[in-house]
Amino acid sequence: MNNNLVGDEVGKLFVGGLDWSTTQETLRNYFSQYGEVVDCVIMKDKTTNQSRGFGFVKFKDPNCVRTVLETKPHNLDGRNIDPKPCTPRGMQPEKSRTKEGWKGSKADSNKSKKIFVGGIPHNCGEPELRDYFNRFGVVTEVVMIYDAEKQRPRGGSKEGRTS
């Protein structure tokens, strides 16, 4: 394993749930309240140059990550954003495929109860998704992902659930 790769992840946050209009400047300004930001990037689609709705923030002091994670909720540009610590690829838990699907470590199962659903037809909305997934458990939130230009669903959704 490359030690430089591990070092690059220290003090770095993945930030999901960004609004399409969020800029690197507004992202940097928001997280600067927790410490000195040395790097900040919003990931963009290579073809359209549109935001992909997530980015990364790196702090000079790695302890700032803990402060950010202990402070919730985080709201930027009218959206609840979801900062998470970056884990070096070599340090991530191994995942295995079982008959029930992909599984990580037991600790992973308690971290998030959100799922991503892709390939949703454009004529399918939040009520239809909620009705479908309610047969598996209580759906607490449905977030449709919209194409910023066309103002129609992009065919993906994040589902929140309780057990």
Automatic annotation (TrEMBL):
**Gene encoding the protein:** DAZAP1
Name of the protein in its database record: DAZ associated protein 1
Q: Name one GO molecular function term.
A: mRNA binding
State the PROSITE patterns in the record. Answer: RRM
Q: Where in the cell is it found?
A: Cytoplasm
Highest taxon listed in the record's lineage: Eukaryota
Q: Region Disordered: what ranges?
A: 75-109
Ribosomal protein is among the record's keywords = no
Which InterPro entries does the record associate with it? DAZAP1_RRM1, Nucleotide-bd_a/b_plait_sf, RBD_domain_sf, RRM_dom
Q: Where is the composition biased (Basic and acidic residues)?
A: 92-109
* A Pfam short name: RRM_1
Alphabetical GO CC annotations of the entry are: cytoplasm
Ranges of residues in domain RRM: 11-98, 113-155
Keywords in alphabetical order: Cytoplasm, Repeat, RNA-binding
Any single biological process term in GO = regulation of translation
Q: Is Plastid one of the keywords UniProt gives this record?
A: no
